[in-house]
């Protein structure tokens, strides 16, 4: 299914670019596409029907051709490989057509949204009703205090109410920062065209006291998750500066200086022991993490879900719980973790992939990482085509692809001349960064030259720090003293991370300038492909030269030399195996020799 992933992702990107180019010659700007569908086709559903019909026709033709070809192959008794190749081709074509349909309908629906119409007319006043999809964070605009995302259900412009279905970015100031994740709000403000970011529109909330009104409160499980998050953040505010910044990052996926405490939480107003995060120190520390190449530690990834799954499965195995109940427990653990952490594209990818593993556990089948990742990416992209343009989703997927495809090969190569612990740690970093580096170059045109040693230095402290942070998250709402104890343990684990980021990230050799955009990403990909090919060519040349320098021996001499008649490749000890054997013999001679064996 890996070719299908490449085809689906490429098709969605090409479709979005072609849609923007055909509409107004502006790729990716949905605000400039607002009038095109109505002018070209009229209402959206006739246009969608026409596009759907045009895209279904190739499937019908491909299926008909496949059936005819199959009959011919059966008559002439052709090889099975031709039939298998034909089936793979049909699957790839079907995936491409599905991607075209999904991406086209998504762009059509978004381009005809009434909010896009208002933004295309240089914005205006509006009243929006929608659901808050993410917790509040510190605003990226200087004129606002907080920001969040709202999934819009309806919009009222000039007293005309219209349905809407897009997600917009909301900026608020002062007393308007009262948004709770999962709640419905009626927000009055000004719609604007976004100046940066991937949101299709911005809503700047008015300064009036009644600009934000809660229509419906969150569900009980969402309220419980928010209370646990708030309690954990209040506990971390009593830690040293580096703990206030890094402990929430490792645990929740959001840095401490980006968290906005909601004013409706009574303890947030009455707790005098908490202190605000030093913004200057936090910003400098964040920059050091980015330059050191370890910023990915501040995002919730698959390691959190693997930890939750491992703990759940071991507890169930300890009490001999049936397999079906264990799979249900794993799903519940995944849902609880996804509720407690801050939502992101990497969390979505890890959750979907984890649910697939739970399904395999229920069916009694062994999980396959590559197959599960392929199906996760395909389903996520077809359901939400906007993920094809998300750098976070791309970084998460490419890093996991690197671990799955190249992790074992890199580990075997490094174990030939490095100790096992160092080889395993370095292999994880190299394999993940090899696939993710082109995407990272498209975000920031810099090469993290010291990211491999930085990741190796912090790797021993990440696991227990994350565990301590999750324990603090689970108990801080009930027993704040115990939660503070776990948070303090996590703070001790983040101290080596802070020192490593400061020393390596603050160095002038930590990053190297590189070409920006797609050209820089292609150059990095070509370089990464050339390095292993060069190593393979050098090793092959060394083997050829070594064989030419050694005297030739025939089959009979080989059998006599190796003491048998079986054919095969002779075993050659690796460098680290020879070093290990030498060390064991030396240690035996120096420390374990019997005194009676000494010659007088």
UniProtKB/TrEMBL annotation:
InterPro entries: ComEC_N, Competence_DNA_uptake. The keyword Phosphoprotein does not apply. GO terms for cellular component: plasma membrane. It is a multi-pass membrane protein. It is found in: Cell membrane. Residues 282-525 form the ComEC/Rec2-related protein domain. Pfam families: Competence. Keywords: Cell membrane, Membrane, Transmembrane, Transmembrane helix. The keyword Chaperone does not apply. The chain crosses the membrane at residues 44-65, 85-105, 324-341, 347-364, 369-387, 393-414, 421-441, 461-489. It comes from the Bacteria. NCBIfam families: ComEC_N-term. This is Competence protein. It comes from Bifidobacterium callimiconis.
